[in-house]
Amino acid sequence: MKDPGASAKWYEEKLGCIPLFVEEEAVTMRISDESSTVICLVRVENHQPMTFPENQFGVGKYYNFLPADIEAAHQLLTVRGVRVTPIDGFGSTKVLTFFDPDGNPLGMCQY
C-alpha cells in the first residue's frame, strides 16, 4: 500500500472492515465481526497493483468476497464510489471485480 492509513479508511468506509492494529507503516483489519479473516495493509516502496499469473481457468484475482446478493453488493459499491466492473458470469455463477485505492483488484463471486 502507498498509505496504509488512507487505505484502511477506504476499506472501513467502503467494505465495512474493522481496524484491529494500527501503526504508521501497517494496519490489520478484520473483514467483519463474524469473520476470523484479517487483511494486512502494509506500506511498500514503489507499489505496483497485484497481478494474478495467467492461467487456463480464467481466474484473475487473489481475493474474492462472497456476498449473499451480488447485485445489491454491486449497487452498494457503485453508490460508495468504488471503481467496479459490470457483473459477469457463467452458468449460475456471477462475478465482478472492484479496485482498492492502490488499484489492487478484488473480486466478488455468487454461486
Helix-strand layout with pairing:
Elements: H1 4-15, E1 18-22, E2 26-30, E3 38-42, E4 64-65, H2 70-79, E5 88-90, E6 93-99, E7 105-110
Parallel strand pairs: 4-7
Antiparallel strand pairs: 1-2, 2-3, 5-6, 6-7
Word description of this protein:
The longest helix has 12 residues, at 4-15. A hairpin with a 5-residue loop joins strand 6 and strand 7 (105-110). This protein has 2 helices and 7 strands, in the order H-E-E-E-E-H-E-E-E. The chain has 2 domains: 1-45, Signal recognition particle alu RNA binding heterodimer, srp9/1; 60-111, Roll (2,3-Dihydroxybiphenyl 1,2-Dioxygenase, domain 1). The protein has 111 residues and is an alpha+beta fold. It has helices spanning 4-15, 70-79; strands at residues 18-22, 26-30, 38-42, 64-65, 88-90, 93-99, 105-110. The chain is 20% helix and 30% strand.
Count the beta strands.
7
| CATH top-level class of the largest domain | Alpha Beta
Which structural class should the secondary elements be placed in?
alpha+beta
Distance between the termini: 30 Å
What percentage of residues falls in helices of 4 or more residues? 10-25%
Specify the CATH homologous superfamily of the largest domain.
Answer: 2,3-Dihydroxybiphenyl 1,2-Dioxygenase, domain 1
Looking at the overall shape, the CATH architecture of the largest domain is Roll
Radius of gyration: 14 Å
The helix tally amounts to 2
**Domain unit count:** 2
Write out the strand line-up for the largest beta sheet, numbering strands in chain order.
4-7-6-5
Q: What would you call the shape?
A: globular
Largest sheet: 4 strands, mixed
CATH third-tier fold name of the largest domain: 2,3-Dihydroxybiphenyl 1,2-Dioxygenase, domain 1
Average pLDDT rating: 94
* Low-confidence blocks of residues: none
Question: Could you give the order of the helices and strands?
Answer: HEEEEHEEE
Beta-strand content estimate: 25-35%
